[in-house]
Amino acid sequence: MLRSGGFDVDAGPSPEDDPIGRAAAYSALLETALSIKAVAEGLGRNESRIRQRLLPRTLYGVRRGRNWLLPLFQFQVEERQGTRAIRTVVPNVEHVFPALSPELNPVTVWRWFTSPSTELMTDEAPDQAISPRDWLLAGRDPKPL
């Protein structure tokens, strides 16, 4: 019945649907994520200010027991003497993350935020899609996101 409907039943799952690939991506996302303390130190803020931004989701965090981990994709990061250091938050994420459903899996959020979207084209390169992250880094309006 699926074949008659045009579905490829012989193909394996896509990377998004593959549970092992999804688990590996989730593990990698959390392995590279930062603690509230590390983010506060990197941004030169108090830990309490970082916590205040997690609840309204103006920063994106993943709850792990009583702790939070903040994935790197929302920060501009640089290497300093072999370690990662936060320079700043990607501009305007505070307008984007609250609009996303809190029910979304962190891997889904990461993939959406970092993958090129055909809905995001620029006048400078009208045939080249860019990611929501790159859109914001270029200083563009967050409303289309």
Molecular structure report:
With 145 residues, this protein is α+β, with helices and mostly antiparallel strands. The protein has one domain (3-137). It contains 6 helices and 5 strands. It has helices at 19-31, 36-43, 47-54, 93-96, 106-114, 132-137; strands at residues 34-35, 62-64, 67-70, 75-80, 83-89. The strands form 2 sheets. It has a 3-stranded antiparallel sheet with strand order 1-3-2. Strands 4-5 form a two-stranded antiparallel sheet. Strand 2 and strand 3 form a beta hairpin. The longest helix has 13 residues, at 19-31. It is globular. The model has no long low-confidence stretch (mean pLDDT 86).
Key terms for this structure?
145 residues; 5 strands; globular
Low-confidence stretches: none
Strand element count: 5
Count of helix runs: 6
Strand order in the sheet with the most strands: 1-3-2
Global mean pLDDT: 86
Compute the number of structural domains: 1
Bulk shape = globular
Please indicate the percent range of residues in DSSP E strands (runs of 2 or more).
Answer: 15-25%
Cα distance spanning the termini: 38 Å
Q: What level of helicity do the residues show?
A: 25-40%
In angstroms, what is the radius of gyration?
Answer: 18 Å
The structure class reads: alpha+beta
Largest sheet: number of strands, sense, barrel closure: 3 strands, antiparallel
Strand/helix succession = HEHHEEEEHHH
